[in-house]
Amino acid sequence: MNFNTFFRKKNISDLQDTTQKSELSRVLTVKDLTFFGIAAIIGAGIFSTIGRASYEGGPAISLLFILVAVACIFTALCYAQFASMIPVSGSAYTYTYVSLGEIFAWTIGWALILEYAVSNMVIAISWSGYFVSMLQGFGIHWPDWLSIDYWNAHRAYLASLAHPSTISENDLKLSKIYQSAPEFANIKIIFNLPAGLITLLVTSLAYVGIKESTRVSNALVWIKLSVIIGIILIGAFYVKPDNWSPFSPNGLGGVMGGVAAVFFSFIGFDSISTTAEEAKNPQRDLPRAMLYCIIICTVLYASIALILTGMVNYKELRVDDPLAYVFNKIGINFIAGIISVSAVIAMTGAILVYQIGQPRIWMTMSRDGLLWKPFGSIHKKYHTPGFATIIAGFFVGIPAMFLDMQLVVDLTSVGTFFAFILVCSGVLYLDNKDLSKQAKFKLIYINGQYVIPLTFCLGITLFFSQTNYKEILTIKPLLIIFWIIWLGISIGALKYKFSLIPVLGILFNLYLMTELGWSNWGMFILWLLIGLTIYFLYGRKNSKLEKLLQTTNDK
After folding, report:
1. Average pLDDT for residues 396-425, to the nearest whole number?
2. For the chain, which has fewer Cβ within 10 Å, the N-terminal or C-terminal residue?
């Protein structure tokens, strides 16, 4: 086995030729791309997970949104440089293929499949909750056994039998739903039907065409931006500054405990790059759209976090519908109703963007020979990756009907952080090979030759002078890996004069990764092992680069 084949790279000029042969329709403007990013970012995060993050960190969670946004901006700048060089669908997968090689590209592509699918499962499940709530507001009762997942209901039922006196109110409700649900062959019929239906509806729209999807997406974004800005302006009149004291009630640990939830709120800006072959001027508009959407969404997220924690005490925000909850709490019920409707609209837009992005990553991997050929087929009438879009619908819709949202949230972040780190690393590679000069949007070069090692020395001195060693080894052993990698980057910076911005992207994302729980890492590693098995059994021998190499050797 020749290990060099694992690191073979695609040629940038060949990829640029690919865009000219693309069968996809070039219809997207910079506004469309920006709205795609906003639609992906402002979904379940602002209507759901922001509440639990605020419960963990208090008002200071607004600062965590800014910190995560900074990490995303450093990463987005790296994405932007790649997008201006390689206007090809595939996002981080394609960028990694030309910079770090095939095995890393496959790993990232496989991780992105998880990110996009799982993110949409979370949003679909959250959408279902708001949809049922909205129907109740109109006097329509949706059957309880058709709006929750089986495993959560079964768990609550067992808990009610084992500990009937200490069971929570929510688990008691779930247990009653389980007991009253209809049966078939002695199996309770319980599943989240709305989550499956919205996935089916959105997948159908994504299948029909990018132009039609864009029109719907843009309209949904305008509506939710109007509602969110209205919430901020109205909520500001009901803020009690006393609720902001203490600002960080649980300290840094409490704030960082919300990393998974807050980062989940931001993932999605990379979905813009999956539509590169459908943008009118991708090399100019993709970089702009990525930065525009992150800046807009950061302002909105931080503002909402401050408004929420100012209107009620942060301890009350451990709910799945925090925005509706706080307005009900202060007696403005009609605003709560508007929020439920707008949440349904916002999440529909987010699901749509992910269902557009995921098939295009599969399409790109299939064109490279790493996935089965039908995934790369383009519908002759609609000019969309038809087969991949249908499979993506099943891949998201079926699990969304049966899985618990918290389990699914745990799967999202590690793979995304990993993808972001490799994209930033890819920019360092391009700089070292003098390939960055081909980019129409190029990162400002800031020489980190001495800055990176000096900050490492300062950081590690402060860290170990104020940290309990036993705590590191027992609670956060991943921090050791963080410092080891930073040391390696520092040594590399002395030799290769690394640019500071991509290094900051690597370090920010790597540090945030260390704040994730072991469950996140365990499930991600299991997913990677499955992916690598597929690569070695199918992808490696069917790779276009492998076949090109064999043809060359035969000659």
Report:
1. 80
2. C
